Amino acid sequence: MAINFEQALGVHPNTLAFRTQRAKVLAGNLANVDTPNFKARDISFEDAMSQVANEARARHQARRRPQNYELLYRNPQQPAQDGNTVELGVEQAKFASNAMAFQTSTTFLNMKLSGLKKAINGQ
């Protein structure tokens, strides 16, 4: 009996891909904290997961395509005089939160893989 890894691993690989892409976006925000007129960007987790769900229903092939999530602009709580909307504390908090969520997803994926390994080995 063949194992359908996409079905067995569930949403976790997509979640890790999202968290990786979001980390890049947030790191870009942090790198441009002093750049005049730079606009802070972010990705909505809910929108990204609904996009993944819609694509999963629409396709039946086994190959995964890289996701292109919609980048949203963030509205600052205190706009800067130079037009930059990056707020250092907000970006650092969002980056840390994303890193913790990435670690959580990695833990869940490792548990899934461990369970599959035990099932294959007959333990």
Brief overview, please?
The protein has 123 residues and is mostly helical. The chain has helices at 5-9, 12-31, 45-58, 88-121, and strands spanning 41-43, 71-73.
SSE layout:
Elements lengths: L4 H5 L2 H20 L9 E3 L1 H14 L12 E3 L14 H34 L2
Antiparallel strand pairs: 1-2
Overall description:
The chain has 123 residues and is mainly alpha-helical. The protein is 59% helix and 5% strand. The chain is built from four helices and two strands; from the N terminus they run H-H-E-H-E-H. The protein has helices spanning 5-9, 12-31, 45-58, 88-121; strands at residues 41-43, 71-73. It has a two-stranded antiparallel sheet with strand order 1-2. Helix 2 (12-31) packs antiparallel against helix 4. It is elongated and about 65 Å long. The two termini are 17 Å apart. The mean pLDDT is 85.
**In total, how many beta strands?**
2
Percentage of residues assigned to helices: 55-70%
Q: What percent strand?
A: under 5%
Nearest-angstrom radius of gyration? 18 Å
Cα end-to-end separation: 17 Å
Spans with pLDDT under 50 lasting ≥5 residues?
A: none
Keywords:
123 residues, mainly alpha, two-stranded antiparallel sheet, 2 strands
